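Lab notebook, design round three. We kept the backbone fixed and only want residue identities now. Task for the bench partner: fill in a sequence for the structure below.
Input structure tokens:
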């Protein structure tokens, strides 16, 4: 066997484990990033009349924010934790008042499968806290606890940069508002489609 062929075999033997090591490092360790997307808040207001009357409102808005987290690559799977802070534009209009959405804080865990060494398909779920304010006329503001779940896809663009797209659903429970004819129940739901970029260390 020629010296050239031996050199090629030696290079392949060295490059193989090195490439595997690089792949193993995908989606592993701390990251920080930003995200933007579409968000729709849906609320329904049910009064205490007999029979009860329900009024529904939904509003679309531009969502924006950032995230920080940590991933652990287990080989074929990835698990991780993430904290995000987002805001949004727009409001929901009821006949007698508007409901504005403020900042949202999410603390979630995620688990995914590597469909390729640089591509991750994942599910997410955890705690969410969102701020809502009644306006027109000016009313109370409150921070509501709830949960969020979702799924997404993330791909490595370079060794230290990844991009993702994901869908999330959030539920913030029910609230009781005073009304002229008695208390009314207001519930809170949210749908969002977000894209983001993460910078990995």
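Proposed sequence:
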């Amino acid at each position: 066997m020629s010296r050239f062929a031996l050199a090629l075999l030696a290079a392949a033997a060295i490059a193989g484990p090195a490439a595997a090591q690089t792949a193993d490092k995908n989606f592993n360790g701390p990251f920080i990033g930003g995200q933007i997307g579409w968000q729709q808040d849906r609320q329904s207001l049910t009064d205490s009349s007999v029979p009860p009357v329900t009024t529904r409102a939904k509003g679309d808005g531009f969502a924006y924010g950032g995230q920080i987290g940590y991933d652990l690559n287990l080989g074929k799977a990835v698990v991780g934790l993430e904290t995000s802070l987002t805001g949004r534009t727009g409001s929901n209009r009821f006949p007698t008042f508007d409901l504005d959405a403020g900042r949202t804080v999410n603390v979630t865990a995620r688990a995914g499968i590597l469909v390729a060494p640089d591509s991750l398909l994942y599910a997410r779920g955890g705690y969410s806290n969102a701020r809502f304010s009644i306006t027109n006329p000016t009313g109370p503001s409150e921070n509501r606890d709830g949960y969020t779940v979702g799924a997404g896809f993330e791909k490595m663009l370079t060794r230290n940069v990844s991009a993702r797209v994901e869908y999330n659903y959030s539920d913030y429970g029910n609230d009781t508002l005073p009304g002229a004819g008695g208390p009314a129940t207001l519930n809170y739901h949210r749908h969002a489609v977000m894209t983001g970029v993460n910078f990995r260390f």
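Keep this in mind before ordering anything: The beta strands are 29-46, 54-73, 77-88, 91-93, 98-116, 119-135, 141-156, 161-177, 184-200.
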